[in-house]
Amino acid sequence: MGAADQDIAVEASLKTTGLGSASAKDDGVVPVIDLSQGTDEEIVEQLWKAATQVGFFSLTGHGIPQSLIDKAFEESQAFFEQPLEDKQKQSPVDMSINCGFEYFAQVRPSTGVADQKESLQVTAREKAMDGRWPSDHFESAAQDLLNASHALANKLLDLLQPLAVPHVAPQTLSKSHNLWSLDGQCTIRFLHYPPQDAETTKALLKEGYWRAGPHTDWANLTLLYQRPGQAGLECCANPRTGNPSEMYWTKVNPVEGAIAVNIGDMLARWSDGKLYSNLHRVRLPEDASKSRYSIAYFAQSDKSTLIETENNPPITAGDYILSRIQSNFEAAKKKKQEA
Ligand SMILES: O=C(O)CCC(=O)C(=O)O
Ligand SMILES: [Fe+2]
Questions:
Q1: pLDDT tens-digit profile of 82-96?
Q2: Ligand 1 lined by 294 (C-beta under 6 Å)
């Protein structure tokens, strides 16, 4: 198996296990961690428990001003409310660099059908966004949230690294994320799940469509900003059991002022599986008459970073991301051929 094949296989297997489409419980399995309370040791203890058992947590007391998050959502909404052609013109897509505007295009190996969403992907690599910023004011709001997210993710990585990846020098992980460097891979993604009328929704649900099909993230860490009242995100509960009958989906509800954080495949690999990259998805609600907006920051090591671990073959972070992008491309190609 290639280095990323196992991670891709987990997603593809959902098509055949009952877990793929089951509905979610709302039982508070995802812990809320307040970064402003307690000593570093106490915080690490909570982060460690969440990162090794569920792979998801909601973070409060994180220090990112709400005004900065609100501004980014305002710009996002104004962008997505424009006609399709304008969005395509303002931010042309280039999948080879993971940048630009995408419309109902991403096909997950877990579903084989396109996510019911549009997104604007900003990859923080030198020149990648040239000619792809919708406007100066959009850029300024995006850069502010990108910088704040980058700092917060690095803080979390510094707290987790001594336990998770003890075989590398201090701050190896956080120092491998350099915004706007020549081989930077950190990404901030603006997402919009558009409303659908009742009849369309019914048909889509019947055919197995999702707002975002079940998947794990490719990153080290993902910080996800959600809006209260715009629910739908769910992650797998009790994922470590290995027993499908004990696994189920649980809600990751938007909490006012909180950021949902999850461990991605890259950090699971760095840590030889100690930290858990959990499956998650965004449900297409039966009443999909309202939009859902979210913003995801993916902390991804620079392309040239070599991920060396005790139990996995070494791979550069660049090759790792590329293989994951290709798996989604291949799912899309296969879908086209079947049509
Ligand atoms: O919109 C969301 O809540 C989830 C998005 C997500 O999981 C992703 O883009 O990887
Ligand atoms: Fe995700």
A1: 999 999 999 999 988
A2: yes
